[in-house]
Design goal:
heterodimer; A: mainly alpha; 64% helix; B: mainly alpha
């Protein structure tokens, strides 16, 4: 039980991810088959739908924008601040900060990760490891979105008697950029909202909020 | 901390499995 309590956040989000991904696949399968029948094509099995570009594209187009959101937020909050926001560093703390602030090299504490103590490429890699992994996931899921959306696009081209296009040509199609931008715009608006709403609004008990009694002009404090 | 590292690995495996799987699905025109 201690494991569950210590890992409540990771387990909760993994569980609701799996539930909603399964729900998405069930309703997506049903919609896909309705359209197949409307076009006079055969319905496909649930297993085949799980391994289809239709399902892959629907899932991955949302994935890429989520990691882009977190990636950009981690990157922008290094150099930009929002006075009064719970999500921001204090004005004046912009930038990469000193080795002392970051507890690296000779400022590392007893239990510091090994690569925080060393110099050179290992420290450089570890200092940026979160952004590096987020960027790889973002680019990977964007690639997977483009591959599945390309196959879907070509299917429709062929159904309408038009020529299939190459993957590189598809990357220049408005179809690809419409689904991409549709996901990006909502993430950027949500990020801006998080930054600015936490100046004046509070959620008691949440680390995403300042303490309820914190003044509006206090920046970057959490419960 | 061992259980935490298992979850850390599980998340990364899940994400990269999804990316590789659907890149292949798309690239092989499935």
């Amino acid at each position: 039980m201690r494991f569950v309590r210590d890992n409540g956040l990771a387990l909760f989000f993994l569980f609701i991810f799996l539930c909603s991904a399964i729900a998405e696949s069930v309703v997506g399968h049903s919609v896909f088959n309705e359209q197949q029948l409307m076009h006079g094509d055969e319905a496909i099995s649930y297993g085949r739908y799980l391994l289809s570009s239709d399902f892959g594209e629907a899932m991955l187009e949302n994935w890429q924008s989520e990691w882009l959101q977190m990636l950009l937020f981690a990157l922008a909050t290094i150099w930009l601040v929002q006075r009064g926001s719970a999500e921001s560093k204090k004005p004046g703390d912009e930038g990469l900060q000193s080795n002392e602030d970051q507890q690296v090299g000779r400022h590392a504490r007893a239990k510091a990760p090994r690569w925080a103590r060393v110099r050179g490429w290992r420290r450089a890699a570890y200092e940026n490891s979160f952004l590096i992994v987020m960027a790889v996931i973002f680019l990977g899921s964007w690639l997977a979105q483009s591959a599945t959306a390309w196959t879907k696009f070509n299917d429709e081209q062929v159904q309408h008697g038009q020529a299939a296009v190459s993957w590189l040509t598809y990357l220049g199609e408005v179809d690809f950029w419409e689904t991409t931008m549709q996901n990006w715009q909502s993430e950027f608006l949500a990020l801006g909202t998080m930054c600015v709403l936490t100046v004046y609004l509070r959620q008691r008990g949440s680390p995403e909020s300042k303490p309820v009694g914190a003044p509006h002009d206090e920046t970057g404090s959490s419960v | 901390m061992r259980g935490v590292f298992t979850l850390f690995t599980a998340y990364l495996v899940l994400i990269f499995a999804g990316i590789v799987l659907y890149t292949i699905v798309g690239a092989t025109h499935h």
